[in-house]
Design goal:
The structure is a single chain. Helices cover about 35% and strands about 20% of the residues. It is built from 9 helices and 8 strands. The radius of gyration is 17 Å and the shape is globular.
Length: about 260
């Protein structure tokens, strides 16, 4: 059992403007820590969904946290481009974190958000990365949504119709960077997490990314786990402990 910091938590909501003129809504959980974890949701999720709201609050017992809505989701403007233009969204959030004076900036991404943090870290310095169920290449995602193991978790654990109504998909045909092509360029410590029973992004995606990475790295497997934030919802304490321990250890190495 991890020991919590239990500091007073302040939550601020802000809107940032990307280089291509998209409004990005974010939540900033502050406890006067010198390190921040930037939480990046995946397709069809938001910063204010139950999974990411709870995760952000729990992480904020150890670090400051910034969670935000990618374009085309939640309270952000624009349409989602499935990783083609979302780098601009993450970039403006990272710029904000740097202006806040954080000494350490960690990225925690889920599914398509996991792909985005890998692509970003391949070109930009950050302290560490945690990629949960990231696809190696958007074009190769299996996404068998008709299977019961795919839609049942959404129906019973993430039944949030108001959130679903905020999602605005854009074109699927924008040129995208495949994480498998750039993961070798990441230099910071990177943790890869997969669910062995993932019906959305099959486990081989995360394994091949782990194999091609040459940075300090670790692979964690949830044997009965499913996809992305489901790993957190189904085994909260274990998932949180794995992430917090990795972030703390990589931060010590960085220093």
């Amino acid at each position: 059992m991890m020991q919590l910091r239990r500091k007073k938590l302040q939550k601020d909501s802000k809107t940032l403007k990307t280089a291509d003129n998209i409004d990005i809504a974010m939540n900033h959980y502050k406890t006067d820590c010198d390190s921040v974890v930037v939480v990046c949701h995946g397709w069809f999720m938001t910063k204010d969904s139950r999974a990411f709201s709870c995760l952000s609050e729990e992480l904020a017992q150890y670090f400051d946290v910034i969670s935000f809505d990618f374009r085309g989701h939640g309270k952000s403007s624009g349409c989602y481009t499935f990783s083609a233009k979302e780098e601009n969204d993450l970039a403006v959030v990272i710029d904000y974190a740097k202006k806040c004076g954080y000494k350490n900036i960690h990225l925690l991404g889920f599914s398509m958000g996991g792909a985005q943090v890998l692509n970003f870290a391949a070109k930009n310095p950050v302290t560490s990365v945690v990629a949960v169920s990231p696809p190696s290449d958007f074009k190769k995602i299996e996404n068998h949504v008709w299977k019961p193991e795919a839609w049942i978790p959404t129906l019973f654990k993430k039944f949030e119709p108001k959130r679903w109504c905020t999602v605005r998909p854009g074109s699927l045909f924008h040129k995208k960077t495949a994480p498998v092509d750039v993961v070798k360029n990441i230099s910071c410590p990177t943790l890869f997490i997969l669910g062995e029973k993932d019906p959305i992004v099959y486990p081989w995606h995360t394994r091949v990314l782990y194999e091609k990475a040459v940075c300090p790295k670790m692979l964690k497997i949830f044997q009965q786990g499913k996809h992305a934030e489901d790993l957190y919802l189904e085994d909260r304490e274990n998932f949180l402990e794995i992430c917090v321990d990795w972030i703390k250890e990589s931060q010590n190495d960085y220093r």
